[in-house]
Amino acid sequence: MRTLIRQVSIFDGSGSAPQAGAVLIDGERIARVVLGGEALASDQADVVIDGGGMTLMPGLVDAHTHLTWGSSVEKIYHQFILSPDELKVAAWRNARVLLDHGFTSIYSAGALGDMIEPQLAAAIAAGETPGPRLVPSTLERSPEGDESVDTGDVFNGRGSEAMRKFVAYCKDEGVQSIKLVVSGEDALKPNSAMDVLYTREELEAAGEAAREAGLWIAAHTYSPEAIGLALDAGARILYHCSFADEAAIERMAADKDRFFYAPGPGVSIAAIEASPPPHVDMTHMKASAKVRMGLEGKLVPELKARGVRILIGGDYGFPFNPHGRNARDLEHFVRHYGFTPAEALRSATQYGGELMGLDVGLVKEGWLADLLLVDGDPTADVAILQDKDRLKMIMKGGAFHKAPAEIVTTDQSIF
Fold first, then answer.
1. What is the pLDDT of residues 355-390, one digit of tens each?
2. Could you give the CA distance from residue 113 to residue 130 in angstroms, rounded to a whole number?
3. pTM (2 decimals)?
4. 260-262 vs 391-396, strand pairing mode
5. What is the pLDDT of residues 4-57, one digit of tens each?
6. With 0-12 CB in 10 A as exposed, 13-18 as middle and 19+ as buried, what is 405?
7. From CA 377, how far away is CA 396, in angstroms rounded?
8. How many other C-beta atoms can be found within 10 angstroms of the C-beta atom of residue 72?
9. Which of 62, 236, 275, 296 lies 20 to 30 angstroms, CA to CA, from 263?
10. Quick one: which of 170, 20, 138 has its CA closest to 68?
11. CB within 8 Å of 42: residues ≥ 6 apart
């Protein structure tokens, strides 16, 4: 099917200012992009959409997603650990919720159950259930006993051989990215953020095994030492990094073309804002969030100035930070990190596509037609993307997940 979207303001994902134009989609890819006064003939398309000056932009990418963290804007769970059956139901629902909110690609930062995400990724790819393009992961691996994470026999054990076995297990399971918890977590275990949970030998073994298996590594890192070890292991993306010192910043800047960084403000801001019931103690989580945001308010702008690719994605899925609110990260980038709206959008589109390793994140000829038609100008106000009703069209691979109200078609059998 060939779809023409015309009379739109095109934000192409690169951070450049929007330009008036039109886009022709052929099958799952963008065939032509024309700007300015040049027109595309309607008879080139089976379906014609008049955008009426609305913004056409790439679909959003969340770089730090936990689909099995069950809570969403549609259903809140007041317990974190769910039964296997309910965990699957929640993950399938959350994938659809994210697509409903304009996220056409997501990179998993770990799951609470085995095989859930590889199965979900396969079901999405087969068209059996709606959801974004998914880089699937498995249980977040931390050494036995650390952070009270029970990862099962195959994940436990110390030493290089245990790490190699873990990578082999993930490869067989169909995982694409391995999540390693390299630092402690103050929000869960006070004063543990500077702890390093792996030896250099273990991380080097994991990195070597992952490269041989064709897998990526996502790393939870807070301390300077953890950041350096993760980069030495070849991690594709680092999360948090709040306590980076000058030496760590220099290292991250030197390696800026080899990794991505997602600070994750979503969970921090949501924790600070949360008003839990009396029986829920969020004291440590709130205190940790305030410290992190204070540090990241200086760190993130510095890394941006040095050319590090910084992506959105903020640990959504807690009851106080449910899936479906992920676009809040864009506003956090502007308000707390000093990004312009266009820079924040680039973090969620072009850079997100580069993380995914796919032809997504840009409105560009030959690229996959993962597109949003937005009522308003998000380069003036990124907050409008938090309102899914402002998303008048959601397209993934040239197919409508949400079709605009006004469509002209020469063949009614198309729908």
1. 999 999 999 999 999 999 999 999 999 999 999 999
2. 20
3. 0.94
4. unpaired
5. 999 999 999 999 999 999 999 999 999 999 998 677 877 789 999 999 999 999
6. exposed
7. 21
8. 23
9. 275
10. 138
11. 4, 6, 48, 408
